[in-house]
Design goal:
Blueprint lengths: L14 H10 L3 H33 L3 H8 L3 H6 L11 H7 L6 E6 L2 E7 H4 L12 H13 L4 E7 L13 H20 L6 E5 L12 H7 L1 E7 L1
Parallel strand pairs: 3-4
Antiparallel strand pairs: 1-2, 2-5, 3-5
Length: 231
């Protein structure tokens, strides 16, 4: 090659290839563009794998204390729970024991609901819906718990046995079951000052028994009021 002579882009390519490029109209610049794109892609993949490997090593190097802290609830979350949250019934079991009403009152939790069952023998006289004065202390405790936990909606259900009733005040068990639930509701509203909007009542008559109505003992278990606290 002569000194001072300008070399064209394709003069360094062997003659057969130059002829092929001339026929196809291709150039060395356009043919090499895909190499640049591939090079950039490979670089990005390499950076990604290095980053992933580094992050994995940092996670594996956590101490047991750090791992435990990641899965334990924070103090803030613990303080947000209602008092006595871990105890079924939010402390009602101990209250029932203190008042010595285990034979007539029970509490259980079912799928997040707290269900307090009040048997007829401690709440009402047979065939009536006036609350017994001896039962008011337990209603006061239940009302206080409802008032202190505003996250609850409260359903009050009245239940009877299958023995028919027909009086001027209660033509059937429907009226009796509704009136008993309503009397408990009114007690909470008037004596405890709880917002009425948090309550609703249901009368079930004899249609939702706990036990078959085939013995006096079973019928006594079915005559009850249930207070359901629904988060």
């Amino acid at each position: 090659m002569e000194v001072g002579k300008t070399v064209k882009k394709t003069e360094w390519i062997p003659s057969p290839y130059r002829r092929l490029m001339a026929k196809t109209g291709a150039s060395i610049d356009t043919d090499s563009n895909w190499l640049i794109t591939l090079s950039d892609l490979l670089t990005l993949l390499l950076v990604f794998f290095v980053f992933a490997l580094t992050a994995g090593n940092l996670t594996a190097q956590k101490t047991p204390e750090q791992k435990n802290a990641a899965i334990q609830p924070s103090d803030h979350n613990k303080s947000a729970r209602p008092a006595a949250y871990e105890e079924p019934g939010y402390g009602m079991s101990s209250i029932i024991e203190d008042l010595k009403m285990q034979e007539g009152v029970s509490v259980r939790t079912v799928k997040g609901e707290v269900i307090i069952t009040l048997k007829e023998k401690v709440t009402f006289s047979p065939g009536e819906a006036d609350i017994l004065h001896s039962f008011e202390p337990i209603l006061d405790k239940i009302g206080g718990m409802i008032r202190n936990h505003p996250q609850f909606q409260v359903e009050i259900d009245g239940h009877t046995d299958n023995q028919p009733i027909s009086t001027p005040l209660y033509p059937s068990n429907w009226e009796l079951s509704v009136d008993r639930a309503t009397k408990v509701l009114k007690y909470f509203i008037k004596k405890q000052g709880i917002n009425p909007a948090r309550f609703y009542v249901k009368g079930n008559a004899e249609l939702r028994p706990l036990l078959p109505n085939d013995t006096p003992e079973s019928r006594a278990e079915n005559r009850r009021v249930e207070i359901r606290l629904k988060p």
